[in-house]
Structure formats: structure tokens, C-alpha cells
Design goal:
The complex is a heterodimer of chains A (about 300) and B (about 290).
Chain A lengths: L1 E6 L7 H11 L3 E5 L7 H5 L2 E12 L2 E2 L9 H5 L21 H5 L5 E2 L2 E12 L2 E8 L6 H18 L4 E5 L6 H7 L4 E6 L3 H16 L4 E6 L5 H14 L2 E6 L4 H7 L4 H4 L4 H14 L2 H4 L4 H5 L1
Parallel strand pairs in A: 1-8, 1-9, 2-7, 2-8, 9-10, 10-11
Antiparallel strand pairs in A: 3-6, 4-5, 6-7
Chain B lengths: L1 E5 L7 H12 L3 E5 L7 H5 L2 E15 L9 H5 L5 E3 L4 E3 L9 H5 L5 E16 L2 E8 L7 H8 L7 E5 L6 H7 L4 E6 L3 H17 L3 E8 L5 H9 L3 E6 L2 H8 L4 H4 L2 H23 L5
Parallel strand pairs in B: 1-8, 1-9, 2-7, 2-8, 9-10, 10-11
Antiparallel strand pairs in B: 3-6, 4-5, 6-7
Helix pairs in contact in B: 1-11, 5-6
The chains are: A alpha/beta (about 300), B alpha/beta (about 290).
Chain lengths: ~300, ~290
């Protein structure tokens, strides 16, 4: 099983549109959208929701005013400032750590599980897709990301699929780390801007930290050829494979408006040629090119 | 007065708006970059950094001499950060939320708290703007404590502009909570529109007045405008889709310095925000 995770550090560089385009090129794959707080892949994939599951990510402390003796122990032990002076707990500030629940001498604090979001197993015209929606202002996005990646893996094994194509979240924090553990490779979608470069470098450091091979493609490369060159220099210096460049092309937005990927919108466009070349380069990498797992090869 | 700049979707222009707005206000401004996973403000303003401060979070360390392996620490921990074995206790620092539960519950005082480094915050100044940003260390996961540390420097006598991270979960909340106004930056595309709706839901949970900047007008469709009208969210500024602006941004330059007509536009944006904040305060019966 191979898993390619598309990342960028910076948001809005084209992770999702490129993942959607790859869906037309990858064979025998499953899609996984791990940008659980602002998922967009489904806007192009138009999934047919087969199963909807609840995600109970944690607990929330609620003081029962009938039992509360207002001793102030909860205020004292809460490190998140979630208990207000009137002995109510602000659900947004509550971390769900349960310390107040355990230490309340009157046992006056309830600790119900919270519904933190939903996750879905769907069918798309390209194959199955696992995706999720974290509830507004909820915690534990990393836990939800781990959950749906696991689910995608199990589905892939069960259905004899060769590849998981994972659309990653922006940043380098909790959900990103949850999205890359044990991945086969990372594709960084960089843009030739000062912030695009800065953020790509942080993702590259992250990939090295977790020892996962990284590749980079440069989106909108012609916006600033000088910065594009800089990205390729950095890549070479840090051992990241440059797999290609994509021009600044409004085909991506036009396709998105029609709820299509670029191959469905106009398969003869320049963008399609460039993306196809990138895909071929990715697939020729040793880590991703072998169609069977190494263990099977030895049998 | 605290104004946070947020978006839901990444790459819509939060940093562009935050930096240009701060430059347009000019006096008595603090600019906080709270996108601590990928802070970018410094790439545009080049502040001179005068002070670096570590951000730490306490994590447990177990004194095995005192530990009786009673498992109370493991039971209270909601985040599976502790595993008590027969003769040892494993601590998974990356899972620890620093709630102090293990420390409080241990009957033997065998839990010692030690500092774990999450990242740094850096103080500086540029062009009359007082600047602070947070920087998460690569491989670390705890973002909200860094944002809270940056925001602990809020000066109530100044205008504080916060560049928030993308998304709708805990880091964004930490950056938007207890602010006077949330300026949402979006782009008129299906992705921008979808994530704007999520951002508006988040703003409504927090019950903070908000307004909209639409960036790259002309690149997509007008769903965002229709939605803003329907939801009664004022559109405070529109920035056209223009390759020239994209190139200015790509070089790390400021729009209001390269295209002088934007100076007035950002000044007008600030005025509108101030008016909305004041109106909201009047409605809530507060004095200025």
C-alpha cells in the first residue's frame, strides 16, 4: 500500500485542485481528505455519501448547579481558565482534560462525550473517498485525521487498492503531523512567493523530522520565475525531488466552478499537460513505482 | 481595540490585509502574527527582532523513587500521555495537553513538572508598528499556548491587529477569541465560498461582529457577494484579481507602497472597522 500526501504549509497554493486532478490519473486508488476543518475536495468530487459516522473526539465538563458547593477547587485547578466566576464552564475554553471532574469534592461536574464532528465513507466517480467534517470550534483535529487515514487504509486493503491519495491540511502542526505518519511520500505544492518558499521550507523540515521522502512541484511558477528558481535551488540543497512546474492558469478556477477537475474540464489544456508530467515523475520514484508491496515481491 | 483577520481557507490574503492595514493605521499599532505554524508577516515587513522568548509547556516527569505505580495519573489523563507499567512510567510528551491532572492527583508527589519547548515568540518593531509573532518548533503540535503567549502582550491603549491561522478549530479560536472585530478575507471561488461559510459559523459561535474583504474579485463567480448580502455581512473592501498585485506579493512587497491608490483604500477600511466596533459597543450599552 502506498500513500501520497499532498501538503504545502501555506494555504491556497493548490493542494486540493492538484489532488483532484491526480484522481483522474491514479488507478485503483482511494481518496482521503485530511483537511478536516476546512475540507474542500468534496466540492469537486461530489461524493455520494454511503456511510456517515459520528466522531466523538473528547469530553466536556459541565457543572451541575444543584450539587455545586462553590468551593472554587475547579477554578483553582483549571489551567485553561474555563471555569467562570459564576461556576459555569465556557465550552470553548474547556480543554476536556477532566481535571476539575476528578478533583471536585462534591462530585458536581458531569463529563459527557462531545460530538466533535462527522466522518464519511463515500463513492466518487474516481473511486472511494474517506472524508470528515470537524465541528465548528472543536478540538482534536489530529485525532480525526488519524481516524480517517486508518479507515482509508483498511478500505484500501479490503478492496485491493494500490494507493491512497491524501489531501493534507495547511500548516505544520497537529493535523499535519497526524496526516503524514507512515506515509510513503509527501508532495509539497509550493508557490513562487516569499511566503510560499518560507512555508515550503518548514514542511520540508517536518518531512525530514519524520523521515518521509518529500517532493515538490511549483504551482503558478511563471508568476515569479526568480522565486521558482529559488525553490528549485532549495529543493536540490535539501534533497527534495523537483517533480515539475505548473503555469499560472485560470483553468483550475474555471474547472472548480463547474465542479470538475482540470482533466474533465479541458483535457487539452496546458495545465493538464503539466500535471500529467508531474504525476508521471512522481510515479517513477522508486518508493511509489512498485505496484506491489515489497513483502509480496519476495514471495 | 483588537481586530483579528481570519479566513477559513488558507491563501486568501489574510497576511496581505493584516500587513497593509497595520501600515495604513501607522500609529499606536501592534501587529501580532498568530499563524504560528507558518508565520509570514515578517517576510513582508522585515521587523528588527529585539527579543526572543521561549514558549514552554509543562509536562510530567515521574520520580520513580516515589512512584508506587498506582496508575492514578494514567487514569486521570484524557490524552493517553502516560502509560504506567509494572516498574516504569512512560510519558508521551507530544500527547500531553499540560492540564496538570497527573501532578494534582498523584498521592505520592511523584509527578514533577518540567518544561517542554513548543517554540518561540519574537518581539520587534518596524515603521512605527510594534510586532510580535509566534513560531511553532518543527515537529511540535501544541499551537494554542503560543498564540496565547503572543496575545498576552496586548496593550489596551493600542490598536491590535491579529493575523490568524486558517481553519476553524482550536488555533483559530485562540486567535479570534475576545477580539472586538473579525475581518474575514475570502476569494470568490467555490472553495473560498465554502470555507467562508465555515468561518462565519465560527465567528457566530464567538458572537463577535465581522466584515468581509473579497480578494481576487473577478477570478470566479459572485456566490460570495450574494451570500454576504443574504447574511447581512458588510463587504468592507474588494481587491481585484490582478497579476500585478500577485507579483508584488510574490516579491514580499507591500501593496500600499507599490500601488499608492491602496493607501486610501486601507485607511477607509480601517475607518469602517472602527465605526462598526463603536456601533456594536453602543448597541451593547458600553462606554467607549
Amino acid at each position: 500500500m502506498r500513500e501520497l500526501v499532498i501538503l504545502s504549509g501555506k494555504g491556497g497554493t493548490g493542494k486540493t485542485t492538484i489532488t483532484a486532478a491526480f484522481a483522474s490519473l491514479a488507478k485503483n486508488m482511494i481518496l482521503c481528505d485530511t483537511d478536516v476543518d476546512a475540507a474542500d475536495l468534496h466540492l469537486i468530487m461530489k461524493p455520494d455519501f454511503r456511510q456517515t459516522m459520528e466522531f466523538k473526539g473528547g469530553h466536556e465538563a459541565i457543572i451541575n448547579p444543584d450539587l455545586c458547593i462553590q468551593c472554587g477547587r475547579c477554578i483553582e485547578v483549571c489551567r485553561f481558565g474555563a471555569v467562570k466566576d459564576n461556576f459555569e464552564i465556557d465550552p470553548i475554553d474547556c480543554e476536556g482534560c477532566g481535571v476539575c471532574v476528578s478533583l471536585c469534592p462534591a462530585e458536581a461536574i458531569d463529563f459527557p462525550e462531545t460530538l466533535s464532528g462527522h466522518w464519511y465513507i463515500s463513492d466518487t466517480r474516481f473511486g472511494p473517498m474517506v472524508h470528515a467534517r470537524l465541528g465548528i470550534a472543536q478540538e482534536n483535529s489530529g485525532k480525526l485525521v488519524s481516524l480517517i487515514r486508518n479507515e482509508a487504509k483498511q478500505l484500501a486493503v479490503k478492496n485491493h487498492l494500490d494507493m491512497i491519495l491524501t489531501d493534507g491540511p495547511p500548516g505544520i502542526g497537529c493535523p499535519v503531523i497526524a496526516a503524514i505518519g507512515q506515509a510513503t511520500a509527501i508532495l509539497i505544492v509550493a508557490e513562487p512567493t516569499v511566503s510560499g518558499i518560507h512555508d515550503m521550507e518548514r514542511v520540508e523540515q517536518l518531512s525530514r523530522h519524520f523521515n518521509i521522502p518529500a517532493m515538490v512541484c511549483i504551482n503558478k511558477y511563471d508568476l515569479n520565475p526568480e522565486q521558482t528558481q529559488k525553490i528549485e535551488d532549495i529543493a536540490q540543497r535539501t534533497g527534495v525531488t523537483v517533480v515539475g512546474r505548473i503555469s499560472f492558469d485560470q483553468t483550475f478556477t474555471q474547472a472548480m466552478i463547474q465542479e470538475k477537475n482540470i482533466f474533465e474540464y479541458d483535457k487539452n489544456s496546458q495545465a493538464c499537460k503539466e500535471v500529467r508530467k508531474i504525476w508521471d515523475n512522481i510515479m517513477s520514484l522508486p518508493a511509489l513505482s512498485s505496484p506491489v508491496t515489497p513483502i509480496l515481491k519476495h514471495l | 481595540m483588537i481586530i483579528s483577520i481570519a479566513s477559513g481557507k488558507g491563501g486568501t490574503g489574510k497576511t496581505t490585509v493584516a500587513t497593509n492595514l497595520a501600515l495604513a493605521v501607522k500609529q499606536g499599532v501592534q501587529l501580532f502574527d498568530c499563524d504560528v505554524e507558518e508565520p509570514n508577516v515578517h517576510l513582508f515587513l522585515h521587523p528588527e527582532i529585539t527579543r526572543t522568548e521561549p514558549v514552554n509547556a509543562p509536562v510530567p516527569k515521574i520520580d520513580l523513587e516515589k512512584c508506587t505505580f498506582c496508575k492514578k495519573c494514567m487514569d486521570i489523563c484524557q490524552f493517553n500521555a502516560l502509560a504506567v507499567l509494572k516498574k516504569d512510567v512512560l510519558v508521551f510528551e507530544n500527547l500531553c495537553h499540560s492540564c496538570g491532572g497527573c501532578f494534582e492527583i498523584c498521592p505520592e508527589n511523584a509527578v514533577i513538572e518540567k518544561d517542554r519547548s513548543l517554540g518561540v515568540i519574537e518581539h520587534g518593531s518596524v515603521k512605527g508598528i510594534s510586532f510580535i509573532h509566534g513560531k511553532l518548533s518543527v515537529g511540535q503540535v501544541m499551537v494554542p499556548p503560543i498564540i496565547k503567549k503572543v496575545r498576552s502582550y496586548t496593550d489596551p491603549d493600542m490598536i491590535t491587529i491579529i493575523d490568524a491561522p486558517p481553519g476553524t478549530s482550536c488555533p483559530v479560536i485562540a486567535a479570534m477569541k475576545k477580539t472586538d472585530f473579525i475581518l474575514l478575507v475570502t476569494e470568490p471561488t467555490p472553495f473560498g465560498f465554502h470555507d467562508l461559510k465555515l468561518a462565519v459559523e465560527t465567528v457566530r459561535v464567538l458572537n463577535i461582529p465581522c466584515g468581509l474583504v473579497i480578494n481576487r474579485v473577478g477570478i470566479g463567480n459572485d456566490e460570495v457577494n450574494q451570500y454576504a448580502r443574504k447574511e447581512n455581512i458588510p463587504i468592507l473592501m474588494e481587491i481585484p484579481f490582478d497579476k500585478k498585485i500577485a507579483q508584488i506579493y510574490s516579491r514580499g512587497e507591500m501593496i500600499i507602497e507599490k500601488l499608492p491608490e491602496y493607501k486610501e483604500k486601507f485607511e477607509a477600511l480601517f475607518k469602517k472597522i472602527v465605526q462598526m466596533i463603536e456601533k456594536n459597543r453602543e448597541n451593547n450599552g458600553e462606554e467607549k
